[in-house]
Amino acid sequence: MADKAEKKVSGGVKMLLELGPVAAFFIGYIKLKDEVFTIGGTEYDGFIVVTAAFIPLMLLTTGILWALTGKLSKMQILTVVLVTVFGGLSVWLNDERFFKMKPTIIYALFAAILGFGLWRGESYLKVLMGEVLPMEQAGWMIITKRLVGFFVLLAVLNEVVWRGFSTEAWVNFKTFGLTAALFLFFMTQSRVFSKYGIEPPKEDA
User: Which of 76, 104, 131 is the last residue in one of the domains?
Assistant: First the structure.
């Protein structure tokens, strides 16, 4: 039953499906950033065209991931919905600002949800990650508090970059800066994980 409920997929394939669309967006933007396309009598710059291609690619890779694993996290589902909505608005209205606002809304929403849980004395992060990362409640509360502040910081940074810098600077920030920041955050929490982590019980031979 367990194998049926949770299908296994190699880490390389999973990473390709999750990060592939982002890498494709970056490469597509670099190649088409100075191009202008006339479609149906309306001019679209390279950013809008790449955004239009990114949406179905994101839907396709997420669908493949779901077919291979049998499940999607709430974060993955929310990300796809926001990409579709705000990316679609950017393409429909020919206005790149909507797509650039997407990270701000995602991080602000995550911070609000986790903050609401903290207000109730709970860690919603534990609900999402508790099975794969067993840890004492005190540890989850510490990580969740820090993550709320971190998400707020990322939301503010995204607003500063897309409003104050060029589109190319924002694409680099979105592709490399935000990804590196998330990895760095969790790497710096290693002391909390080691202090409050719970080792799974060992089965008798």
Answer: 76
Task: Calculate the CA 187 to chain-centre distance.
Answer: 17
pLDDT, one tens digit per residue, over 113-146 is: 999 999 999 888 887 776 667 888 898 999 999 9
pLDDT at 171: 94
**Mean pLDDT for the chain?**
87
Cβ atoms of residues 82 and 106 within 8 Å: yes
Examine the domain organization and report whether 107 and 183 are in the same domain: yes
- 87 found inside a domain: no
71 and 161 share one domain: no
Rounded Cα distance between 146 and 140, Å, is 10
How many folded domains does the chain comprise?
A: 2
Domain shared by 109 and 190, yes or no: yes
For the stretch 92-101, what's the b/e string if a residue is b when 16 or more beta carbons lie within 10 angstroms of its beta carbon?
eeeebebbbb
* Chain segment 150-172, per-residue pLDDT in tens: 999 999 999 999 999 999 999 99
Residue 101 and residue 56 in one domain: no
Give rounded-to-5 percent helix, strand, coil for the chain: 75, 5, 20
| pLDDT tens for each residue of 37-64 | 888 888 999 999 999 999 999 999 999 9
Structural domain boundaries enclosing 30: 1-76
Alpha carbon distance 109, 194 (integer Å)? 29
| DSSP 8-state symbol, 203 | P
Is 89 within 8 Å of 98 (Cβ atoms)?
A: yes
